[in-house]
Amino acid sequence: MASQEQLSAIKGAKVLMVGAGGIGCELLKTLALSGFQDIHIIDMDTIEVSNLNRQFLFRQSHVGQSKAKVARDAVLRVRPNISITPYHANVKESRFNVDFFKEFDVVLNGLDNLDARRHVNRLCLAADVPLVESGTTGFLGQVTVHLKGKTECYECQPKPAPKTYPVCTITSTPSKFVHCIVWAKDLLFAKLFGDKNLENDLNVHSNDAANSSEHSDVFEYRKDEDIEEYGRRIYDHVFGHNIEVALSNEETWKNRNKPRPIYSKDVLPEKLSEQNGNMEKGCVTDDVSAMASLGLKNPQDVWSLGENSRVFLEALRLFFLKREKEIGNLTFDKDDQLAVEFVTAAANIRASSFGIPLHSLFEAKGIAGNIVHAVATTNAIIAGLIVIEAIKVLIKDSNNYRMTYCLEHPSRKMLLMPVEPYEPNKSCYVCSETPLSLEVNTHRSKLRDFVEKIVKAKLGMNFPLIMQGASILYEVGEDLEEDMVAIYAANLEKALSELPSPVTSGTVLTVEDLQQEFSRNINIKHREEFDEEKEPDGMLLSGWVEPPVDKDKNKPIGNGESTSNALPAEESLEAKKDVTIQEISEVTEIATGTKRKLSEVSKGTTPDHSGLSDETRNHNQLEKLDVDDEDDELMISDDWESLTKKKRL
Amino acid sequence: MDGEELTEQETALYDRQIRVWGADAQRRLSKSHILVYGIKGTVAEFCKNIVLAGVGSLTLVDDRVVNEEALSANFLILPDDNLFQGKTLAEVCCDSLKEFNPMVRVSVEKGDISTFGVEFFEKFDVVVISCCSLAKKKLINQKCRKLSKRVAFYTVDCRGSCGEIFVDLQNYKYSKKKLEENIDCQLEYPSFEEAISVPWRALPRRVSKLYFAMRVIEGFEDVEGRNPGETSITDLPGVLKLRKELCETNSLNESQIPNALLERLLIGTREYPPVCAIIGGILGQEVIKAISGKGDPLKNFFFFDAMDGKGLIEDISEPNTGS
User: Fold this and answer.
1) Residue B171 and residue B185: Cα distance in Å, rounded?
2) Average of pLDDT values for A143-159?
3) Which of B13, B282, B285 lies nearest to residue A49, judging by beta carbons?
4) Same domain, yes or no, for A287 and A200?
5) What is the complex's ipTM, to 2 decimals?
6) Which label site among A217, A289, A412, A456 has the fewest CB atoms less than 10 Å from its CB?
7) Residue A2's closest chain B neighbor by CA?
8) pLDDT digits over B230-247, tens only?
9) What is the pTM assigned to this prediction?
10) Is A625 among the domain residues?
11) Nearest CA in chain A to B279
């Protein structure tokens, strides 16, 4: 119950919430009821129908409006006399700089992507403002507290990168449905409806030089061509011809099941325009849909090969008939019904060819759209826990700060499991002073590679500045002079050793993101060779902890957006069954090296059990809070090993 | 909902949660009927959760008039005088809850629930009661158990920064997936009365202190004829006396029920909103599990204490019963 000290701290507190979605709605409501009087909230999204099952501050009539603003209005009705300031904006905007963050007593995150979380983490460190982080997926959730210098920052334990697949798996040897989805979405859909100038690996294994010119014609729609004929031509090419070409390479199939080519005449012998007499009537509604036009009602149904083929052709037809203007500019959008139908159908036909089980549109959409499954109850629980931590932070009750995990299956009787925070990771490249070094072939790697793969991807800088000594090699900004912009653009294409200020072994580069007030020196070491499989980037950053990476990581093709805090989309299917997934990055974090707890001396290295299930890994870094006597003294239980052995896998 | 399939509207609205528990479970939810008695902050949270989840119907019973205190932790009540003039708690909450999901039938039932016959409870699949005396809890639990239809029974109470949930699913069969197989599970739940009658010395040594503390306060209110929550710090001497008696009867060391804990529970009827959200969320999850038949239900008490931050399950039943 809130004591006088707590009440007074709450009353005078200025709080920043980042995110007004699932967690945000619950959090704003609980903060207001708890007596907070000055709340600011940033969210760039607008309201969608699928939000309404849990973002209870929103109504059907609000669809399309700003989440931050509608949330504010809704809560003001319950607490008219408090101040809630909404920002319908991206938290990465320059106005949300360190000075902005410094105004707040605590920052509360309710975000859904890693990128934004890292950004906020850096700003909180730079501003020295406490951060309470959180995340939920289905029935799982967690709340963590981060104070500069006292606890780990959000990035002290690296978060796993989003799952990617090797090119050849996607283009030639799919073995899972998700591979077919990625093929259908990023290759076929992109080829047919997206920007024609973009590189596309669709025919990557076509060795026939004579054919390559023919192939450049295959996907192009010829003027006045019968649309059904065009559709069948594409169908036969990708599901028939291409498979036959792949089959001709015996080596590939030595230890694998061979795919079978599929031709439209075998699956749909008669012309569709004769079969579906009503086709020309088309749809009266705004939503152009192949399912609707074919009378397929239930998105949960798994269609037959014939039905998938019909959807494929019909979707293609509808794109050309009703949405011709968009062709050439389309990117896949999970809320684009026709696009989802096309991708589902294409993925299913390919799956059929390779003997992979077919999936419903509902399932396919979840995978293709990286949809995070979510319920209201978990968000409500997490919001309550966030407020409890926030209040502790405000009264500086540092001995009682806790990281709390909300579990689906109880662990030692606990559904809500509090753990003491750890001290900062001394090797953390964000909050520590660790020097970094980069091994790279300075003659081969270009500045562009360095910027994309290291500075942006690994170090998470959005607006980088790269200097060698006093020379600026590259920067991003709004008020740069034209000739500087040209120089930087030219620099990107140069090998490191050929830059105006050459970068060679022994050079120290300084990389900065001014907005995040994040700066790092990187010592460059030249290295000739890199292992294509293990080091596909051709660069190795060290003095920095690698996130756990999936085994088959070659030249990666990802499955869309980086929402790595979510379950990989493929696994969202599994959510309907028992959840025993190893990739839940929000709940479990791999212990790396010795950690010291905040108030107690460490008992030694936490063991590495990366092969085990979530709960077991939870335990590997959990401290047992055994309450043994009436003083409620915290005791550390011995013997991690015996405890972990008891847990089921 | 009449047909077997989910409507297009339902599929669109419930998309994200169908991905959690499946279309089948969603269908079962849409056919379920929930009864709720005693609405304060925690129960308001629970109601919000299950309405969003898409239950078939929710019936509210609480004839108390809206007052200042009700406003403090119940976000379903807007401080606009015009809206709640002359209305009962149930009526005001009903209006708000309807807005969260037009597909759920939310209604109010008036009257003294202890006088409702067994056949009244037969209409429901789930009964949740709060702000209830010990006697009433036992009575309603018994009525639910008398029915041939299985009615899931829950009590929920928050006192200050602590919360307690009790679950009685009677004889509960469900199946779950383990690796690739479906296994059938069965659990036997004791009634509330049976559970609290289990001698304290028969319970596992590490049972949450909150369990005992709640029983002491509950016992105190019972003996003194108080309304639920109608206690304050001035009652501490009387409470400590009762603790002594109970501990002696049960051969339990008094130190197992610390003074400090009892003091914190003598907070009266004020609620702590973060705890309401947490308990309301856990309860929501449990009810959804019971209706959908998916997932291990908790057996049979859940405790949360904001002071240590643990959310614990305790199995308070005779040693021979259980799964």
Assistant:
1) 11
2) 93
3) B13
4) yes
5) 0.96
6) A217
7) B272
8) 899 999 999 999 999 999
9) 0.83
10) no
11) A381
